[in-house]
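Hey,

Quick one before I head out. I ran the complex with calcium ion overnight. Inputs first:
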Amino acid sequence: MRARLTTLIVATLLMTPAVVCATEQVADLPEHTIMRATGPIVIDGRIDEPSWGAAAAVGDFVFPWWEAGDKEQTEARLLWDDANLYISFVADDRHISAVHTDRDAPVSQDDCVEIFIMPDTSHIRHYYNFEVNVLGTILDRFQLSEPTGAYTSKLSTATQIDGTLNDDTDEDTGFVTEIAIPFDSFVDTAPNVPPKPGDIWRLNLYRIGGKVNAQYSQWSNTGTPQPRYHVPERFGIVHFSADSVAVKMATPTAD
Ligand SMILES: [Ca+2]
Ligand SMILES: [Ca+2]
Ligand SMILES: [Ca+2]
């Protein structure tokens, strides 16, 4: 009976129309404050900028559909400045695979990271999805671009692989994906471009694990019986801070 009840509740959630207020179901959604970067972020797949070093990770990804295999964790961080939203993913991965190289190819079949973003929390279906495989191939969509979702952002990305691509005879270590999304990508929906300090957007961060051990993991649990990422009701909550990350200044050594 409990299982049936849970199924009913989830089914109701999936059918909930766009009029759902973004604040009605926030009880167990993760929240994160996005701090401002203190200097330039170079999109090169290396998160060695001081701002990345000072930024807190959003928290562990969850594996609601886990059945078997290693739960390969992801550390994701967010930063912003007047021009861009920055996202970095540090992904543990023992088997790295990717084949898609064309824009808007089905990169989710590869080792892939994804960002789904809703700038206007009063219009829950007005969200964008950005998906980047470990080769740096981009798929971007805007859910209001009917019927195909066709949309081309100015997202820039770079990846670094620690391991061997498409060679499962060995064990890899992981990969890093660094992304900048210009705020003018959101001009059709965002209340403010760039956001004003204190603005709240909603987003979710996802990962798909490629050919071997294709685990689906995510920051905010979508709560669906089967793997499904297009669940804006379950996007987490992010606050744009007026403050910069607290970068530690190098201390001169006495000699
Ligand atoms: Ca960098
Ligand atoms: Ca390999
Ligand atoms: Ca993988």
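Residues 206 and 218 are 4 Å apart (CA to CA).

Talk tomorrow,
K.
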